[in-house]
Amino acid sequence: MPGEPKLVRVDERLVHGQVVVAWLKHLSCSSVCIVDDEVSGDQYIQEVFKMALGTGNRLVVCTAHEAPSYWTGWEDSLVLVRNVLLACEIFEGGAVFSRLNLGGMGKRIGRIKLLDNIYVLPEEMDSLRFLRDSGVHLFYQSVPAEAPVDLGPYLDGKTDGGGAAAEAGGELLNG
Fold first, then answer.
1. What CATH number should be reported for the domain holding residue 152?
2. What percentage of the chain reaches a pLDDT higher than 90?
3. Closest CA to 59 of 102, 26, 30, 17
4. How far apart are CA 25 and CA 29, in angstroms?
């Protein structure tokens, strides 16, 4: 879709090897845009991320509130957000994207298992359903060499996904 980034990705770790080595090269992006309130206020971690990206890659960091106003300049970018709630917040704030890639979202107490590497909070399930119902294609793909997995059926519990319960759309992890 015109006016949207090359890819919007949810990944708890934000900038790491899979992003730098695989996704940036595959997408031929000129910049990485991190939308994260915490990182926006932390100059040290921003410098660490800049070093991880290496020379030739621009890093832009902004808050979720600021993201929609920056959006029109990010057509040649990979946008990274830490969680689904942030992705939904920027979408509702006016940021346009038609695809959302879910990367690493680790296993934690209180999260629902969608796939082996995708665990979400119950409120994130609601946000994913909202995004899907708004026309955003949701998929899991850790690296470009892997085939993407459509997450739509997992949100409704129509496929097992390694533990998805039909009623909840996933298996809730308890202590």
1. 3.40.35.10
2. 55
3. 30
4. 7
CA 133 to chain centre: 17
Other CB atoms closer than 10 Å to residue 44's CB: what's the count? Answer: 7
For 75-106, letters b (16+ CB in 10 Å) and e give eebbbbbbbbbbbbbbbeeebbbebbbbbbbe
Q: Residue 172 half-sphere exposure, CB side, CA atoms within 13 Å?
A: 11
**Range of the structural domain that residue 22 is part of:** 7-172
Angle between helices 122-133 and 84-92 (to 10 degrees): 40
Give tens-digit pLDDT for 59-85. Answer: 999 999 999 888 877 788 999 999 999
The tokens 């030739």 sit on which residue? Answer: 56
Tokens of 11: 């990944």
Q: Look at residue 1 and tell me if it is in a domain.
A: no
Fill in the DSSP letter of residue 6.
Answer: S
For the four alpha carbons of 162, 174, 166 and 168, in that order, the dihedral sign comes to negative
Q: How far apart are CA 35 and CA 40, in angstroms?
A: 8
Give the count of domains, the chain: 1
Tokens standing for residue 49: 């991320």
